[in-house]
Amino acid sequence: MSQPPIEPTPASWADLLSARNLLRSLALTGGIALHAVNIYIVATVLPTVVREIGGLEYYAWNTTLFVVASIAGSVLATRLIQRCGARAAYLLALALFCAGATICAAAPSMPWLLFGRTVQGLGGGLLFALAYALIRLIFDEALWGRVMALVSGVWGAATLLGPAVGGIFSQAGHWRWAFLAVLPVAAALALIVIGQLERKPAGGATGPLPLGRIGLLVASVLAISLASLAPRPGWNVAGIGAGLALLLWMVALDRKATVRLMPRGGYALSSPLGAIYACMALLIIGISSEVFIPYFLQTIHGHTPLAAGYMTAFLSFGWTAASLLSSGRTGAAADRMVRLAAPIVLASLLALMLATPNPAAMAGDAGTALYCMLLAAAGFGIGLGWPHLAIRVFNGASAGDETLAASSITTVQLYATALAAALAGVVANGAGISDPGGVAGAQNAAWWLFGSFAAAPALALVLTGRILR
Q1: Mean pLDDT taken over the chain
Q2: Mutual orientation of helices 331-355 and 438-453 as an angle, nearest 10°?
Q3: Helix residue ranges per DSSP H, 228-271
Q4: Are 285 and 456 in contact (CB under 8 A)?
Q5: Contact indicator for 230, 428 with CB cutoff of 8 Å
Q6: What DSSP string describes 369-382?
Q7: More confidently predicted of 81 and 278
Q8: Rounded to an integer, what distance in angstroms lies between the CA atom of residue 137 and that of residue 86?
Q9: Closest among 270, 279, 269 to 385, alpha carbons compared
């Protein structure tokens, strides 16, 4: 009688954080830390910035241009590794990120700040995508789950560190130094990268950069992002439709191309890789309803901006905790983590739909604690499955597409975030967040936002069954 296959023994944290693996871990997670902490620093100092240099009407463009440039950077990551090698690609990303930070720190007006944010976004997107691509290249497969958990841990730490750094400099009247605070960290990271990453190009597809398709992808994201800023629901819907049409055009061109932006099978739900990407995107869309949570907490429940911000951070804490908990699972145990992800996110969003509009449900310390637990549960759900979905991307790519498949995780995540922000704006505006506005408008918007966004993890639940089969 044949014996059942033996599941591989998962690597321990000691294996990852010892000897050379420790420095390599610092190199990869350090880049993501710069990208993540910067997001929260800028969100904290931006109100102070516009009071000094003006440009309130362009406030949201700081996020829009950063996200658009980040997506452009993410799709270039694989080509840079192939042409220049991991070390040169990473150092270029750090240089762009630091140049953007310096431009922002010296900005005399909002147009200069927006230019700096665009350069920063390009470098940040490269850093983000390079981390995913290099996990597969420089670590043994047994360590992949632990490294993915470490990446999630960096995002959790950023929710604490970023607002603190931004708040200290902003409150002291030195917001420009908040942008420069990342430069010493980037310099130290560059030294580690020089010593730990390979100089030799990885090889692979050559030829001119697919600038036309990159332009279509950027235009698609820009149209969707602009849609979220429009005051009327009709314009919201039109902008999202235009963005999706541009995306479909790009996909049609990319399917026929020799040098692709996404790996083979990445666009088709019928393929395992396409189903995994779609599941990851749907989970991201589900938890992106958090964009309005600080507003709901302040408007409906009377919390201070600081309290509302840190309550919202419980979603990131939940993601981090679950990733650390599940990262050592393999085989059937890893499958169970993937299977649990979508149901937990779905249940959490439905509970938030009922609790958020109801002041009585959140009265007192007990109500606040309950709400934090619901937010943590939503993050916990996606954190259980995300590392194992990412590993399935690493293993599921066709020969020659492995690095592209890994770096495309970032592109999928950023695009899903941009789409979710636009959809959240459409739902909230249509539900009355600004008209009639006030508490009543916020309550109705909260009910519709969480209720409609629960459809995303529900669809992910269907895809999960297909992925595991």
Answers
A1: 84
A2: 160
A3: 233-256
A4: yes
A5: no
A6: HHHHHHHHHHHHHH
A7: 278
A8: 9
A9: 279
- Three-class secondary structure of residue 305 per DSSP: helix
Nearest to 379 by CA among 450, 293, 294, 319: 319
Entry pTM: 0.83
Measured distance CA(149)–CA(321) in Å, rounded: 9
pLDDT of 2 strictly over 60: no
Q: Can you point out the beta strands (E) in 53-144?
A: none
**Residues whose CB is less than 8 angstroms from the CB of residue 165 and which lie 6 or more positions away in sequence, other chains included:** 37, 41, 44, 178, 181
Residue 144 has which token pair? 């992949």
Predicted confidence (pLDDT) per residue in 373-423, tens digit: 999 999 999 999 998 998 898 888 887 788 888 888 888 988 888 888 778
Residue 398 phi/psi, 5° resolution?
A: -70, 160
Comparing 10-24, 236-250, 268-282, 393-407, which segment has the lowest mean pLDDT? 10-24
* Torsion-angle region of 203 (φ positive above 0: left; ψ -120 to 50: alpha; else: beta): left
